[in-house]
Amino acid sequence: MLIQQIQDEVGPTTIIKDPYEAQPSHDMRSPMISGGMLEKADFPVDEIKKTFAWNTDTMSQNLRKMQYAVRGQVVLKADILKNEGRQIIFTNIGNPHAVGQKSITYYRQILALCDLPAEYGVDHPVASQMFPADVLERARKYRAAIGSSGTGAYTNSQGIALFRDNIAKYISNRDGHPAHPGNIFLTNGASAGIQNCLTALISSDEDAIMIPIPQYPIYSALITLLGGQQVGYALDENMGWQVTQEVLEKSLADATAKGQKVKALAVINPGNPTGQVLDFAALEVLCLFCAKNGIVLLADEVYQRNVYVDNKEFISIKKVACESPGCKNLELISFHSTSKGLIGECGRRGGYMELHNICPDVQSELYKLACTGLCSGVAGQIMTSLMVEPPVKGDDSYDQFQQEEFDILSSLIRRSTSLVKGLNAIPGITCQTAEGSMYAFPSIQIPLGAIEAAKADGQSPDTFYALSLLEATGICVVPASGFGQEKGRIGFRTTFLPPEDTLNQAIAGLEMHHEIFCKRYA
Ligand SMILES: Cc1ncc(COP(=O)(O)O)c(C=O)c1O
């Protein structure tokens, strides 16, 4: 009856079936080794390790321990359901183009012209009828910078020189403080930069990295993979996910007392999954704390264009480091990406990191590490340079570019507002304002019966809840436990990236599901 109610409200296409009849699959790994590859089921359990020298006993145990919730159990289940023909609303990952965001024309035109042989592109007789003059000019300039080998050749491991110049100019203009192309590394998304820095930081199993709780799980995953330890510093939900000096000091003191050596601290601003935008004072607390304690600051600023509230603006940590008197010796690495912002081209794998006040010998080692990856993808490098060097007033492309950016930003503002409002309207769900980034991170109250049922099923309560939501409505969220959270808190992370009508449908589905879920376990 209640399921029928949901179907009436939300529409039949997204509804799957009564979650309480569903048999959740516990073997979430099998789909990963199916499809043309050897099937796990072909091997009796006791024989598999005799058949393969490289098996789960002999492989990297750190990799086995590593977890990555954004593509974890609930998402794997969603993939299975999708393959069975069910319609799934994927709100688990900040991947805008996967859920309908359109590319910005200017970027695609230049990418295409950089890739095409000159005679089919920049030098084609009708090129000037097909492309705005500034696009052709920019494409020619980029082609010259890439060199005659074109986009199919490896580049300098740190990235193409012109693009590093452009990034340095962008940072200097943004912050009002100089940046140097020699300190810029183009990377395959921010992820590759983060991975390289953590690789270079963690030198023993006592080494620890401070990460926000909740955090974007690339940090916990890579720390585990690299054999380090994580030290959480809790963000205060009641204060809009702010960070406080007391919490930082206590986390460090506790870690030191346990023999952990804190090497670095990661900050994500605007926050993922928490959506807060930190002001100068909050950033200064972090900078001073790191400077005072000789801790390298990793500033994850991939959402710097994603700020949705009038009373907040993005301020870079580099700016704070340059302007705050106690931060002269702060060792800082900042990350940016073409996956987020208004571009949202996650598959392009563009990004950069800027090193500020990093030991030259360490910088050389980071360069050596970049060399082992040869270079970051050339399309990603082009996109990164375009991100920091958009068309300016007077360029033929300017008006269209502005309009396309405006449409994306204004829709993100509407969607962030309606999702948070919709969540807060559901009795038992509370959600802080999503001031920035692409996510809402609500806290939910569920009956004790549900917590016990989750335990009996071997699930965390929020995984149990997320699987139920998926089964009932086709909405795929990530259990909050995958990001880390205060003990006893239950919640999930959802993006607000699906198109506005789909998102509204999802909000209705969330409400209906929460109601039947709570009734069921009351
Ligand atoms: C906070 C944060 N940092 C880094 C990344 C990695 O992004 P990419 O490697 O696509 O640039 C993400 C992706 O969602 C993110 O949310």
Compounds present? pyridoxal-5'-phosphate
SS element count, helices: 19
Enumerate the spans where pLDDT stays under 50 for 5 or more consecutive residues.
1-34
Major sheet strand order: 2-8-7-6-5-3-4
Globular, elongated, flat, extended or rod-shaped: what is the shape?
A: globular
GO molecular function: L-alanine:2-oxoglutarate aminotransferase activity; pyridoxal phosphate binding
Organism: Eucampia antarctica
InterPro entries: ALAT1/2-like, Aminotransferase_I/II_large, PyrdxlP-dep_Trfase, PyrdxlP-dep_Trfase_major, PyrdxlP-dep_Trfase_small
Family: Belongs to the class-I pyridoxal-phosphate-dependent aminotransferase family. Alanine aminotransferase subfamily.
Describe this entry's structure for a reader:
Helices cover 43% and strands 11% of the residues. The chain has 522 residues and is of the alpha/beta class. It has three domains: 2-28 and 72-94 and 405-521, Aspartate Aminotransferase, domain 1 (Alpha-Beta Complex); 105-152, Orthogonal Bundle (Helix Hairpins); 161-388, Type I PLP-dependent aspartate aminotransferase-like (Major domain) (Aspartate Aminotransferase, domain 2). The radius of gyration is 24 Å and the shape is globular. Residues 94, 189-191, 216, 218, 268, 272, 300, 302, 337, 339, 346, 351 line the site of pyridoxal-5'-phosphate.
Task: Quickly list its features.
PyrdxlP-dep_Trfase_small, Helix Hairpins, globular, 522 residues, Aspartate Aminotransferase, domain 1, 19 helices, pyridoxal phosphate binding, Aspartate Aminotransferase, domain 2, pyridoxal phosphate, PyrdxlP-dep_Trfase, binds pyridoxal-5'-phosphate, alpha/beta
